[in-house]
Write a structure and sequence with these properties.
The complex is a heterodimer. Chain A is mainly β. Chain A is built from three helices and 13 strands; from the N terminus they run E-H-E-E-E-E-E-E-E-E-H-E-E-H-E-E. The N terminus of chain A is likely disordered. The longest helix of chain A has 12 residues. Chain B is mostly beta strands. Helix content of chain B is 12%, strand content 29%. In chain B, helix 8 runs parallel beside helix 10. Chain B is globular, with a radius of gyration of 34 Å. The chains are: A mainly beta, B mainly beta. Chains A and B meet through strand 7, strand 9 and strand 13 of A and strand 15, helix 5, strand 22, helix 6 and helix 8 of B. Strand 13 of chain A pairs antiparallel with strand 22 of chain B.
Chain lengths: 175, 872
């Protein structure tokens, strides 16, 4: 059982700058909790409505906020996020009909077929925490990288099912 | 001589009318003499009297016979009460009494009619239609079960009247009995959200900590409703905790009114910073932020909203204290000065620095363990919490050098990786939690922990926006063997949680728990001890039943809905559930948590060392700094919550493992369960009728088919350390057999689904699942229900599971506040421990009831999984 924390170089981090999926609107993506979610645009540019399955998502910006409107099964759901920062990237979870912020990292399933170092390089990771006993790793992303884009890159390079975005859980309460 | 007047022929007797007669119950055993007397009476009786005889003389048709029976005994009818409170779920006894001359040797059956303004079957139930007086008995009765409901119906009456009598008896007293049901509370639930725009403005703390240049306070001011008023968010700092003097501005922003009804708002984050160059050496500083015109007063004794207060201290060099510095203390004498007031260890009815004493014996029952020196030596306990003051005078000797870890050390100037110091000076939750389990004994200061020789480590969980608490959790709970080394931990105390309506734990968390219980402790499995929550009284849309069954149930935290976790509730110094302790079927045991520490005893434990820091700065206490037993301010007497019950149980587990280190995690759970004390034994079931059908929202203590007692308030009961130690000392590790997680037993092909759930009706929808093929030697250790319900408001739903052996368990209580307005249940997994030790094979019955009007839905799917021990 080992924990390996790799602090990768700033050079590698600088290689990933794209907002990826967000540039062309929403994208379906797997989340670590085993859910299929829709990553919503975090682009500066206004995007046309994107239809994914039965979900129609549209994003626009004000001076201080990014506003997401999702239509699904006859209902409309609205969310507002900051333009930047930890809560600026969110997904829509259709099963729960809710929006969830993303953590700035991805989860990578460990297997003999894929070297975690290769995955880290692919996404320009700033750090990797390997949970060998649990069979997965958490790959930290550069500040400007969109996790959905990173998952798409990993899927493209190593196949689907290897990587997933991570949803920010609720705050813990001390009891 | 006056001839006699002609005789007037006697008037013919008025026929008595139809006489109820039960041939099956006449004749045999009847006394001929009394039979004759009864018939003579009947012949000679005036019409009015005859009517009475009709009721009593059932053998009229036999009156022409020569062998008449003796006089029958007379019967009278009575009710045990004149009035009964509907809310009490009372049972009223209606009795028949026989009096002279003798009891009926063949018995008597009195059939009843029920009348009155109350409706049978809707307002009450009668246990039978007739009262049977056994042969030679003088009385018999039936029970009238008065339903509690929430209808506004006024007081109502129940009249039980004699309809007919079979047997040798007659009515000579009251032929009916009447009592009044005093109407209880009505509960017309208003599901509409509260009106008023300002109520939706909230201030949420995001981060408080130290950076290279400043002390930073990050807050989110959230206004998620349209049309509200703009508000000011103001931040200040001072060296006075009350801000009565020297308050200086830290910043002010205008929080605009929202003009768009976002359901979800992730913005509104504001950061206020206090530059380090403005700080002086050896001082305490306080920062606060509030929404509104004037700051709320937190010292007025009333709960305040939208106020954030924090504090920190500087060292001699003017830097913010971010590491533990051992305070200078004069060594005390042998012993633990506060031990005599630590009711949770030995309850002598002491007051524990509160206004009321507890009840002697309401404790962990560990006098024997203390006397024998069973102190948890050789066992490693991790406090996964806000921090741990590793240099605290009453903890330092037990902390493992280099064993603790500070997840925020890289971002915090001056912090050390092995020192999870909490810079806040307004109390460190983790330090107080640690003291309950692991305060050093016999060192001349303070009190003692439950396991005062345990090896202690602490891992803090940062929650800043830039932090990753989930990753920290994996690293803290056994998933890491360096930074920190949590893989070498025996017991994890988890006095934290979160409420997530109808969510399941993540697959990674389940993987973590499985790994921890499978691989750690050299394959014997680590123990995960978790606080069940303090949400019993946290209601928004409250139903009357919430006062008895709780508001947010203990199943609202998905991470304790697993058999690998020991979910711990709290009991108080009177051996009753602590007022706040959340209830649910996922509870395993309860530990001491106490109450508020002012009116009633709370827990006495370690506080941040020194008079200038700790809960003592903000909590009213009868054990303040300077008190003869707390001169240095290192202790607090008002700590509580299931946060303290959990480390008490974790300490008990350490004591048990210290006695028998070879025990597996399941052995320990088993020992805790079978040795737990039943407390509050007379706690009544909580039941009410909905649309005339009674529904049990919470059972009384139940003994299941395997002989284990269980209650949703208490799990298997209060931990009894001495009994656990006694069992553990001779226990053969691994004797529970192999641990098996069954496949799901589902209702995939169940053509009865979906099942409509009747609205506001206690009958609910029921479905049966036959489980076959599991070993006959299988002993259930936990049952997991997965259920899917389409519904417009899951708050309405109560879910109960009945085992093949007939044990009932409420897996989701109705009116669970965490489900308020929640749109149905999507494959929600709910565990129950109530079936512990039973065999899983047979028919399981699920009942899903909708107990509030308006919203409706249907049961669409359900299945069961069993965790069991399989014996060879």
């Amino acid at each position: 059982m080992g924990l390996l924390t790799l602090l990768l170089s700033a050079t590698a981090a600088a290689q990933t700058t794209s907002d990826g999926a967000a540039m062309y609107g929403a994208a379906r993506v797997s989340a670590a909790a085993g859910r299929e979610v829709v990553a919503l645009s975090a682009s500066r540019a206004a995007a046309a409505p994107t239809q994914i399955g039965g979900i129609v998502a549209q994003t626009r910006e004000t001076a201080t906020q990014r506003i997401h409107v999702v239509s699904y099964e006859g209902e409309t759901y609205r969310a507002a996020t900051p333009l930047d920062g930890p809560f600026s990237r969110i997904v829509f979870d259709p099963a729960r009909r809710t929006f969830v912020p993303l953590l700035p990292s991805i989860r990578v399933e460990l297997s003999g077929d894929v070297r975690i170092e290769d995955v880290a390089a692919q996404v320009g990771a700033t750090g990797v925490t390997v949970f060998e006993s649990l069979g997965f790793a958490i790959v930290e992303l550069p500040r400007d990288a969109h996790p959905a884009d990173a998952v798409a890159r990993v899927s493209s390079a190593f196949g689907g099912g290897v990587a997933a975005v991570r949803l920010r859980g609720p705050r813990l309460e001390w009891r | 001589m006056t001839p006699p007047a002609p005789m007037t022929p006697p008037a013919p007797m008025t026929p008595p009318g139809p006489i109820p007669f039960d041939h099956s119950l006449t004749g045999a055993g009847r006394s001929p003499a009394s039979f004759r007397q009864a018939c003579a009476m009947r012949r000679n009786a005036a019409p009015a009297a005859a009517a009475a005889v009709v009721l009593g003389c059932v053998a009229v048709s036999g009156c022409e016979r020569a062998d008449r029976p003796p006089d029958p005994p007379t019967i009278s009818l009575s009710a045990s009460v004149d009035t009964v409170e509907e809310a009490g779920n009372r049972t009223v006894r209606v009795e028949v009494e026989l009096d002279a001359p003798a009891p009926a040797p063949a018995g008597v059956t009195v059939r009843l009619n029920f009348a009155g303004t109350a409706t049978r079957g809707r307002d009450y139930a009668a246990s039978a239609d007739a009262i049977v007086v056994a042969p030679n008995a003088r009385s018999g009765g039936i029970d009238i079960d008065v339903y509690r409901d929430f209808d506004a119906e006024g007081d109502e009456t129940v009249t039980a009247a004699v309809a007919r009598v079979a047997g040798h008896a007659r009515v000579d007293g009251p032929a009916s009995a009447t009592f009044t049901i005093l109407d209880g509370e009505s509960a017309a639930v208003d599901k509409a959200p509260p009106e008023g725009g300002g109520a939706d403005l909230a201030l949420l703390p995001i981060f408080f900590g130290v950076t290279d240049e400043a002390v930073a306070m990050v807050l989110a001011a959230v206004n998620s409703s349209p049309g509200g008023e703009p508000a000011r968010l103001v931040a200040e700092w001072s060296t006075d905790i009350a801000f009565l003097t020297g308050a200086r501005p830290l910043g002010e922003v205008e929080v605009p009114a929202s003009d768009d009804p976002f359901e979800f708002l992730f913005g509104g984050v504001h950061e206020f910073v206090l530059p380090l160059d403005r700080l002086e050496p050896d001082r305490s500083y306080f920062v606060r932020a509030w929404l509104g015109e004037a700051p709320p007063n937190p010292f007025a004794g009333e709960p305040v909203e939208n106020l954030f207060v924090e504090g920190f201290a500087t060292d001699a060099a003017g830097r913010v204290r971010t590491r533990c510095v051992a305070p200078a203390r004069t060594p005390g004498a042998y012993g633990d000065p506060l031990f005599a007031e630590q009711w949770h260890l030995v309850n002598t009815a002491q007051t524990a620095f509160s206004n009321r004493p507890g009840t002697a014996g309401a404790d962990l029952r560990m006098g024997g363990a203390i006397g024998a020196g069973h102190n948890g030596a050789g066992v490693k306990l991790a406090i996964v919490d806000t921090g741990l003051e590793i240099c605290h005078p009453d903890l330092a000797a037990n902390t493992a050098a280099g064993g603790s870890f500070n997840f925020t050390h890289e971002a915090t100037p001056g912090a050390l990786s092995a020192d999870p110091f909490n810079p806040s000076i307004l109390g460190d939750h983790g330090t107080s939690v640690a003291g309950v389990a692991a305060a050093v004994a016999n060192n001349g200061v303070g009190g003692r922990g439950v396991a005062p020789e345990v090896t202690l480590v602490g891992f803090n969980l940062g929650q800043g926006a830039d932090e990753d608490p989930e990753a920290a959790l994996f690293r803290s709970l056994g998933g890491s063997d360096s930074e920190p080394d949590s893989a070498s931990v025996d017991i994890f105390n988890m006095s934290f949680g979160s409420e997530l309506p109808a969510e399941n734990p993540s697959e990674d968390y389940v993987r973590l728990m499985k790994m921890g219980t499978t691989d750690l402790r050299s394959g014997r499995g680590a123990l995960y001890v978790k606080a069940a929550g303090n949400t019993f009284e946290f209601c928004n849309r409250a139903h009357s039943l919430n006062a008895e069954i709780g508001c947010v149930a203990g199943n609202a935290d998905p991470e304790q809905n697993l058999p690998y976790v020991i979910a711990v509730g709290a009991f108080n110094a009177d051996d009753v559930k602590s007022s706040y302790s959340a209830a649910a079927a996922n509870l395993w045991v309860v530990g001491p948590g106490g109450e508020d520490g002012l009116e009633r005893p709370a827990m006495i434990t370690t506080d941040q060392a020194g008079a200038g820091a700790g809960f003592g700065l903000i909590a009213e206490s009868l054990l303040p700094a300077g008190h003869p037993l707390n001169r240095d301010g290192d202790y607090v007497s008002a700590f509580g919550g299931t946060s303290s019950a959990s480390p008490a149980v974790a300490g008990a587990v350490a004591v048990v493992l210290g006695v028998n280190p070879a025990l597996t995690w399941r052995d320990v759970k088993h020992i805790l369960a079978v040795t737990a004390r039943t407390i509050d034994p007379d706690r009544a079931e909580v039941r009410a009728a909905f649309n005339g059908t009674p529904y049990v929202a919470q059972h009384a203590w139940q003994t299941n088919a395997a002989g284990h007692d269980f209650h949703n308030w208490y799990g298997f009961g209060a931990v009894d350390v001495d009994a656990a130690v006694a069992l553990a000392s001779g226990y053969a590790p691994g004797s529970l057999g192999a641990f098996v997680e069954s496949p799901w037993f589902g209702a995939d092909a169940d053509e009865t689904l979906p099942l409509a759930i009747p609205d506001a009706d206690g009958a609910g929808a029921s479905a049966v699942l036959d489980v076959t093929g599991l070993p006959e030697s299988a002993d259930i250790e936990a049952v997991m229900l997965e259920v899917a319900v389409e519904h417009t408001d899951a708050w309405d739903l109560g879910i109960t599971l009945r085992s093949p052996a007939g044990t009932d368990s409420v897996l989701n209580p109705p009116f669970n506040a965490v489900l308020e307005g929640f749109p149905g249940l999507r494959n929600w997994q709910l565990p129950s421990n109530a079936f512990y030790g039973e065999n899983p094979n047979g028919a399981w019955t699920l009942r899903v009831a909708d107990l509030a009007a308006e919203d409706t839905g249907r049961l669409t799917a359900w299945r069961l999984r069993f965790y069991y021990g399989e014996h060879p």
